[in-house]
Amino acid sequence: MGEAPAFYVDDMQGSFSNGFDLKLTGFETAIAVGNKTYVIGGNDDPTSNGVRIFDKSTGEWVIPTVLGTKPKALEGHLCVLLNQDKILIIKSNSNSNESVWFLEVDTLFIQDQKKKFDTEVVAWSKGVIGDAERPIVISGPSGVGKGTLINLLMKEFPTKFGFSVSHTTRAPREKEQNRVHYHFTKRSVMEEEIKAGKFLEFAAVHGNLYGTSIEAVDVVADAGKRCILDIDVQGARSVRDSSLEAIFIFVCPPSFEELEKRLRARGTETEEQIQKRLRNAKAELEQGNSPGLFDHILVNNDLEACYEQLKNILGISESMNIPPKTPNKAFDLSVDLSLSKINENILINCGPAEQRVVLDLSSMKGGAPARTRGLNMYALDPITDGANGCYF
Ligand SMILES: Nc1nc2c(ncn2[C@@H]2O[C@H](COP(=O)(O)OP(=O)(O)O)[C@@H](O)[C@H]2O)c(=O)[nH]1
Ligand SMILES: Nc1ncnc2c1ncn2[C@@H]1O[C@H](COP(=O)(O)OP(=O)(O)O)[C@@H](O)[C@H]1O
Fold first, then answer.
1. Ligand 1 in reach of 203 Cβ (< 6 A)
2. In what order do the strands lie in the sheet with 226-230?
3. Using 50, 70 and 90 to split pLDDT, how confident is the model at 331?
């Protein structure tokens, strides 16, 4: 303990070894990027931001300004340079929600050229392992029961799922609360915010503007929850084209007549609004059922049965005896680790038992900007060296 772990890193890191002429204390590890050496970890003093930088060209230490929340405890971590702007931090003995972090070096900038010790800015961002964390996009015509299904999910699993609170220019309904059901906003304000790049997606629906802000998704992810987006088909298409790797679910009514009945029975719209929603429903149903956009189509006939199917899709159904595809297994690696990077894979060698697991970097796409989602990880079969398909 107390020593930086051994690294075996490919050419990208060039001369990396633990041969820094720096004394590392506590649980610190170090990574060189150009002239700078990033020292990560150290004592878990809550006032520390978890990073200090040694600038070889000046021989000075810089305590950078760090954006984002740092990993809770950096004791027992390993790090590897992914490219010149991102350091991957893997924390051992930690649950999967906390085990993979990135230190974004590309956010570096000099705050004040005149100061002798420039304060640099770096950013922490959290990675997530496995499909189990993928956000869920739920679409379907007005009145089909999306909100009802989402409410059931949030009630049964309040710590697992979080709702992405959209912005809308429509007026609130009687029981709707600002910032809980929607961020109710003015069209001019929302248009400005869209221009400023604050939205992951937006669309005009039933004559109003609706959109998912990047922050809405981030808030849920920061709470360690899986994000649910209730958005229309156009929005789903935009999310498909975005970096957010989601699961796309389309909810259909058993019949058009039943949809109309539910919409009327809900009693939240005027006759004119109901007519508009029903007209739009026809196009939405056509698009929703067209191939390529949605991963799953649910028919919401019997609510209980439909909810059960939704949970099956999400791998959380109690009635199913098969394990979910990507269980949220604890990432319980010993501190006795080494890392190597081979092309798009990080190989983690775990101690004397020689257990080896692979972190597949090619799966790193996804996540709201500046975030990383859905890192796949699997164990290598000790005999064949082939993947055994086990996800962590
Ligand atoms: N593209 C997009 N659509 C959204 C968003 N929020 C809600 N919607 C969709 O807008 C439509 C109308 O929503 P709403 O006014 O709450 O009426 P409801 O569907 O009848 O409950 C629904 O299809 C929602 O899925 C969003 O952020 N983006
Ligand atoms: N399977 C179902 N059978 C009958 N009524 C339903 C069913 N699912 C939802 N509802 C009702 O239909 C209405 C519309 O549901 P809601 O969740 O508001 O739809 P959406 O969010 O898709 O607009 C609500 O009054 C809800 O209670």
1. yes
2. 161-163, 226-230, 136-139, 247-252, 296-299
3. very low
